[in-house]
Structure formats: structure tokens, C-alpha cells
Amino acid sequence: MRLDFSLVAVAVLSLSTVVQPSAQETRPGGADAGIERRIDALVERMTLEEKLGQMSQGGWAPDFDLKEAESGIIGSLTNADDPAAIAKIQAAARRSRLGIPILMTHNVIHGFRTLFPVPIGMAASFDPALVRETARWAGRESAAVGLHWTLAPMVDISRDPRWGRVVEGAGEDVFLGSMMAAAQVTGLREGGIIASLKHYVGYGAAEAGRDYNSTSIPPVELRDIYLPPFHAGIAAGGATIMAAFNALNGTPATANRWTLDQVLKREWGFDGFVISDWDSIIELMKHGVAGSRAEAAEKALMAGVDVDMAGELFRDELPALVKAGRVPMARIDDAVRRVLRVKFRLGLFDRPDPDPAAADAQLLTPAAREAARRAARETIVLLRNDGDLLPLAPKAKRIALVGGAAADPSDHMGSWGAAARQGDTVTTLAALQARASAGGYALTYARGCADDCTSTEGFDEAVQRASEADLVIAVLGEPWYMTAEGTSRTRLGLPNRQQELLERLVATGKPVVLVVFAGRPMALTWAAEHVPAILYAWAPGTEGGNGIADLLFGDASPSARLPMTMPRAVGQIPVYYDHLPTGRPATDDRYSSRYIDEENAPLYPFGYGLSYTRFAYSDVAITAPKPDREGVLEVAVTVANTGARAGKDVVQLYVRDLVASRSRPIRQLKAFDKVALAPGESRRVTLRVPIDRLGFHAEEGGYQVEPGRFEVYLGGDSRAPMVGGFELPTGVDYPGAPPVRLD
Ligand code: BGC
């Protein structure tokens, strides 16, 4: 399992120049004549070997040979996170014949040294401004050590929680996913590094949720659901794209000329570069579309892959293919130009490299920690709170904390930890201990079992502690290594013996608060019926323990919402809110679209999450969009905090196109706003939907908003009630779907 959870100490640190490429510099089509001229001049001087070097990525290891950098045979390098090592390698690259700097990259997925909640958690914040801010921190810390580029964000839409990589994305919804893609790319750029949107495309629809498996997605669905987050990310300045491992409709994504060349490069005008995924070029042989290494290299290159991530195939195979006339030099030059364009736009040729000695001061700063703590609070979803058990009442003086994860920094950090360290992480145990001593609580801790919970040895002790307490906090769920790449599951309950432990704790009769660590929605059907309070904490990051404690003790009210439907049973999967209607909607009738052994409804719907306060909506006013390209649907509503605590509501607007030329989803999220309200406060909120968000792609191509009736639903989750509708007298056609942009 290559989970890249490096806990490598950052020994010598640096103050780097923070790069802020302007929107103009990184916008597709925003070609800069000066840069293009410099590229021409450079390409003219390059040997084939040097060109192929730019098209090959190296991997850092302690025994990395500086000659690779000095001889110009790698254009980029992954996985170095030590500023001194990075500086040395960069200096070697600058000594190469043409002095082309190396693009330094890493998997900075949810932070570099300071970890923020994992991406699925960040999506649960429903707060693009916060996501942008945390990405900015990730970018700043990365830039400080000499990195330029992250292999993130993952913008794969997924409706299948069996797929372990849902932890790296924004969940099931195309609009939320597009907003999160744009927010991350923008924040990373503001922090000083560029993003690589991945995995292009359809990887999140792996059949049966099994990683790397094939996907079958009709082209219109691909355009309506899976492509828009990439488009939004590119519009926000995403500089590179990573091709996926999966086969899409029979053609591996890494050899897919239609998605890579036609859609991405021609239709969208993307002029950055496409990188393969790890070994995804050579795997074309295993996919059965290439009979040799040479054929694999040729297919990937000619489909549109510009850089070989694993490094050797392009270098080894392309010289002979060029010689034999199978690969035109023009295509090689195009790939090289794309790489150089990204480097020039970043200013790599013109600015000094960061001083490695100055990095330390920029890592894990108090301000970054504060942002991480705030982010943790904003991403934890309150699923259940019977009898307002939470926040903890002062009378619950004796608290029994149970669960291996509570004391395990890795579970708080989550997978893809970049350069984060366990010792910097505030665990739930540490945070609650600090609270307990300050607040006069008696806190006891019994592990019960380790985070994987394969043994029941500690159960009796944990149950004993629980029986002696006023309240039990059980921290259970998926250990960090059960989420991310290569972690598909067929069962979505609590792993191993955890369910047994939970049932024994509940059987003590003491009130139990369940805090769940997870990288995906799990099917916690028993807990949803028997445990009075459930906080879904994902992997909350470096300040995760503090964030959890803040919510448990009521310093803040939970405000996150599920970015993915939580199933009752694995058999319901794929279960997602914006499905198409059927000819036989579910009724009591046997011959309707339903199960005979389970409800259709999920355990918790998309967009769902509770608060410690209550919100009420009134005076909804709908203004229909003008039926032209500038039209905007406006829905205004008064939101009131009718409870006794401050809180944040996520107002969600869903729209349904009632009758169209193609069946349309029963509703789709079109806008949302997170609103902070003091007790008794109310505010007029206006949600705006540009009319182009109301359209869809036609089978024969093209994108249009069709005339007719649209229904509007407004509320706190995807079951929001209908509040009215509007009529579009005429339709609006677009040459292509415009990308979603941050407001
Ligand atoms: C993953 C990518 C990752 C790459 C480099 C691959 O296995 O699919 O998401 O960026 O490894 O570490």
C-alpha cells in the first residue's frame, strides 16, 4: 500500500518567495506572447533527450542522484519535502546545460505540515471561502520549502462510499464539487503553488466501488456530472491535469483521445500539461490496449498525455518511435511547450529559489493552527442529538472517554499526511484532558481496543469505566489507513469488533456520544437508532482534537453538512440525491421502484447536518431568470435563528427541470449559503443562480437551458420542501457549458 504518509522531519527550513501567478498568467487561452517567444527560443535549443526530460517526472528518495537533475533528464520531481534537499536538487538543475528549473511537487492533499480536515470533511463545511483559506495555508507551507505544485485536488465525483478515495474528494454532487475544486485551486495559487486536478476522468465511478476498476458513463452524464469540476478548476487557474487509472467506456483514461485531446485541450482550450498517474501508461498493456511498452507510450502521448509520472517510459520508448515516424516531433514539442509554459508562468526562470534556512518559520504557525482548529469545527457533522445531549451539560461531571482513535494522532491526521508529524497533532484525548482539568470534569480514558479493534481484551475495562461515569464519549470508526487509495470496502459498518464495543457501552445505560472518524459515509444504521448523539468527524487534522472538544463543550455549534448520502445498507449503493425519476416512483406497490427488504431513503441524506440551535425560513421570494445568457434566478428568504445558541445554517437551493427533452434529476443543488446567526437574529439571504447552471447536455452535443417549468426547493438538506417555481418561456443555447466560478 503506497499511502505516502510521510512523517519525515523537516530538518532545515526556509523562507520562500511566495508566488502569486496572476489570473491572466494561468488562465487557459490567456497566452502571453513574451512567454511563448521564450518557449520558442528554448525549444529550438533542446535535444530530443532534453525534451523527453521535461516530459518525465522523477521520484525523490534519500539516495536520489543529483546527476538526474544536472543532466536535465527530469522535468519535475515528486515527494521531496525537505527544503535543504529540494534546494540542492534545484541548484543542480540550474547547472544543467539549459538551466531549466525542476518543477517540485508533492501530494499536498489537505495541508503540508499543518493538516486540515481531509477533503471530504472540507466539502462538508459547505464553505468555499474556508476551503480556499485552508488551501492557501497548504500552498504557503509548500512554497516555503521549495515546492511549486501539488498533485491535488482530487475532483472526482463519486456516488459510491465503498470506494476508499472518496476521502480525497468533495463527494457526490457536481455543483458542490465544482465550487470546492475552484476554491482549492484558487487557495493553492494564492498560497504560492499550482494545482493538478485529478483524476481525469470518471475514476470516482469505479464499478462496485473497487479501486482502479472500469467505469461506464454515458457521454452526456460525463459532461453533466463528472467533467464540470475539472472545468471549474481549470477556469480557476488549475495548471495541470492528471489522467486517471480507470478505463472509461472501454478506453483507459490515459489513452483517451476524446477526453484528453478533444474535450480538455480543444474544447476547453487548456494549455497547461497533462501528467499520467503513477504507472498508468505502462498499465495500458494490462488494460489490453497496448501490446508493448512502446505502444503504451505512443498511445498515451498521442491521446494527450504530456508527462510520464513514473518517469522512464517516455524517455526509453519515444526516441525510437520518433525515429520510426510513429510519433511526430510536433507532438513532442507541443508537450514540452506545455511543461515550459507552466514553468514560465510560475516565474521559475526569473526568481530566486527559496532559502531553505528560512522555511521553518513559515510552517505550523499559530495562525495556521488557528485556521486548522476553525476548519475542524466547521467540518464535523452532527448526525443525531436526541434530547439535546450535546453540548455537554455541566452536570455530566464524570466522563468516560473510550476508543483507540481518541489517542491516536494518525487517525486525526488522516491519510496523505505530507510532511505533518504525529507529535504536532492534538488528539481528542489530549484536548479533552485539557478541558477536563480546566472545567472541573473528571475524565477517564479506556482504550477499549486499538483503532483497528481486532481484540476484545480491553472491552471489560472500558465498560467498567463507562458504568462509573455520567456520560460516555466513544471515538470509533475507520483507522486512517482504511481510507484513501486502495481501500475499497464491501462492508460499511464499524470495522472489526468496534460494533460489539459500542453495543456494550450503550448497554450500560449511560448516555453515549459517538464520535466517528471516517474517510467516507459509513452505514451506521444501528448507531442511528441506539446512540443518542453522533458527531461525524472524518479525519479532522492537526487541530482535530481541539475542534472536537470545541463542539462537544458547545464553544461552537456544529454547522457541517453531508457532502455524500449516507446509506442504510450497502445494497442501496449507488444511492445519491440527484437521481433521475423512474416511470414507477416508489409506492407501496410491489411493481414500483423499491426494495422489498429495505427503504429507498438513505440513513441520512445529502446536505444533512444538525446544529445546537434551530433555524426557520419565511418570506420566500422567487425571481425568475430572464431567458437570455445573462439571466439570473434569485431566491430570497428570511432565515431566523429561533434557538438559544449561536449557529450557522447552510441554506440550500435545489431546482428541478420538470419536463425536458431528456429525463432530468428529481432535483439538483444550484446554490447554497452558510449563514451565521446569533440567537434570535434573522437575516434576508438571497441565493443567485446564473441561468447557465440550469441547463444540460444533449445527446447530440451542445448545452442548453430548455424552456418550461422549473420547481424550486429550499431548505437545510436535500429533502428541502418545494417553495415555488418559475417558467422559462424560451430556452437558451450555449456553445459549451460555462464553468462554475466562485462568486
Ligand atoms: C495516485 C495519485 C497520486 C500519485 C502520486 C497515485 O497512485 O492515484 O493520486 O498523486 O499516486 O503519488
From TrEMBL:
PANTHER family referenced in this protein's UniProt entry, alphabetically: BETA-GLUCOSIDASE
Question: Where is coiled-coil annotated?
Answer: none
Q: Which GO terms describe its molecular function?
A: beta-glucosidase activity
One biological process term from GO is: carbohydrate metabolic process
By sequence similarity, the record places it as follows: Belongs to the glycosyl hydrolase 3 family.
The protein in question is named Beta-D-glucoside glucohydrolase
Alphabetical list of InterPro entries matching this protein:
Cellulose_deg_GH3, Fn3-like, GH, Glyco_hydro_3_C, Glyco_hydro_3_C_sf, Glyco_hydro_3_N, Glyco_hydro_3_N_sf, Ig-like_fold
Task: Give the superkingdom in one word.
Answer: Bacteria
Is this entry keyworded Ion transport? no
The protein's UniProt keywords, in alphabetical order, are:
Hydrolase
Give residue ranges for domain Fibronectin type III-like.
649-718
